Amino acid sequence: MSKVYDKHYYIAQAYTFTHPPPAAGVLAGYSINGVERWNDDGGRSVADVRRAETGETAENR
Fold first, then answer.
1. Rounded to whole angstroms, how far apart are CA atoms 23 and 30?
2. What is the pTM of this model?
């Protein structure tokens, strides 16, 4: 990773992560639940997107 601004970083070379948690952990610098914390441009977490795609609701979790 390379520093861009005061507290902002970017990955200097292409890398494919197989799951959200390791990707979020690398970027955050500590263990983090990428499924719950990783958001798209609309603010939806990976978990929210998965629930919407599967039709899962709070009642059937």
1. 11
2. 0.57
CA distances from 42 to 3, 38, 46, 59 (A): 26, 11, 11, 24
- One DSSP character per residue, 34-60 reads HHHH-B-TTS-BHHHHHHHHHT--GGG
Contacts for 12 with CB less than 8 Å, ≥ 6 apart: 1, 2
**CB 37, CB 50: distance < 8 Å:** no
Place of tokens 């390791």: 22
Once rounded to an integer, what is the mean pLDDT over residues 42-58? 86
CA–CA gap between residue 16 and residue 60 (Å, rounded):
32
Cα–Cα distance measured from residue 38 to residue 24, given in angstroms and rounded to the nearest whole number: 7
